[in-house]
Design a protein that fits this description.
- By secondary structure, this protein is an alpha/beta fold.
- It is built from 5 helices and 4 strands; from the N terminus they run βαβαβααβα.
- The protein has helices spanning 9-16, 28-40, 51-54, 57-69, 90-98; strands at 3-7, 22-24, 46-50, 74-78.
- A 4-stranded parallel sheet has the order 2-1-3-4, sandwiched between helices.
- Helix 1 (9-16) links the parallel strand 1 (3-7) and strand 2 (22-24).
- Helix 2 (28-40) packs parallel to helix 4 (57-69).
Length: 102
């Protein structure tokens, strides 16, 4: 396994069609639980989280901690099928992910 997706039904279905499994969630509590379960696994290099959940304070804290503590796991936040699209510069995303300013 390489990647894992946390998001709504449409997002999960889309990624499953290309062979990436995930957890369908409907609340921030379910999203946090799914992230914690994914982090227990050692076979995941990338975890994709829908912005619908990743932008909430509870998830931001967990994602930030993971980015600091687990250098071998990349967490990517993507717009979900129902979530708003954020305008994030690629350099900001790289800086946040790697912990370096570019």
């Amino acid at each position: 396994m390489f990647g894992y997706v946390i998001g709504d039904s449409d997002m999960i279905t889309g990624f499953r069609t290309v062979g990436i499994e995930g957890a369908e969630v409907n609340s921030v509590d379910e999203a946090c639980e799914a992230l914690n379960k994914a982090l227990v696994r050692n076979d995941l290099a990338i975890i994709i989280v829908s912005e619908e959940f990743s932008t909430l304070p509870e998830m931001q804290e967990a994602i930030g901690k993971t980015r600091i503590d687990r250098k071998n796991t990349l967490i990517v936040e993507l717009p979900g099928s129902k979530g708003k699209t954020s305008q994030v510069r690629m350099s900001d995303l790289i800086s946040k992910t790697l912990g370096v300013r570019i």
